[in-house]
Amino acid sequence: VVATPYYSDKLLVYDPYSNEIKGVDISSVSKGAQKFFGVCCAGGKVVAAPHYSDKILIYDAETSKVKGVGTGVASGEGNFVGSCSVGGKVVMAPFNVGKLLVYDTG
Description:
The protein is mainly β. Helix content is about 0%, strand content about 55%. It has strands spanning about 1-5, 10-15, 20-25, 35-40, 45-50, 55-60, 65-70, 80-85, 90-95, 100-105. A hairpin with a 6-residue loop joins β1 (about 1-5) and β2.
């Protein structure tokens, strides 16, 4: 189970089998407030929609590594809110941006 950071600089990861909770540092991807809003899983990755961040947050649960992917359209405040997985792609709903954001996990 993964919760994306809104104000925190850590991604919250909970393993229900071991009952372990850990925080994964994401400060290399984004800093500040209201970074991400909405998360889903696709292609073995956890993908978070950028809200105030200019990057998509990608978390690989197998390696516990995070990375950021630039969007080319996210800038400023309230970019995207919410995401869902469709056929191995992640679709993020626009908030203050005039288009859908699609990330291909393949």
